[in-house]
Amino acid sequence: MAHAINWFEIPAANFERAKSFYETVLDIKLLTPFPHMKYALFPADMQQGEIGGGLVEEKGYEPSQSGALIYLNGGDDLTIPLSRVEAAGGKVIMPKTSLGGNGFMARFVDTEGNRVAFHSMK
């Protein structure tokens, strides 16, 4: 097994607001291949071993600040996406913090009330 994590899903109370938040913060375009679902895919090449995930608004998916914590790829330097969090409607709850030889992390709350984190090596 190459990775312990294979897929993640982030719940949304307001799909369009959440989609806009993640597209802005990560400077990406989420894919919406399912016309009858409020579900968007984060870009990932799973054939190349990248970890994929989705954003979903559906019954049974409740945003939360407790439970499992998803660490999103902060790119070369997580300072860049972290600087976009509050302007996009989220809240930084832990600034960029050193993990020593394991890089850096930061935590934030998205527009939906989910506690999420970034990781980067710089």
UniProtKB/TrEMBL annotation:
Pfam families linked: Glyoxalase
Domain called VOC: residue spans: 4-121
Superkingdom of origin: Bacteria
CDD domains (alphabetical): SgaA_N_like
Gene3D superfamilies with a match to the protein in the record: 2,3-Dihydroxybiphenyl 1,2-Dioxygenase, domain 1
Record-linked PANTHER family: GLYOXALASE-RELATED, VOC DOMAIN-CONTAINING PROTEIN
Protein name in the entry: VOC domain-containing protein
Organism: Chitinophaga filiformis
Lineage of producing organism: Bacteria, Pseudomonadati, Bacteroidota, Chitinophagia, Chitinophagales
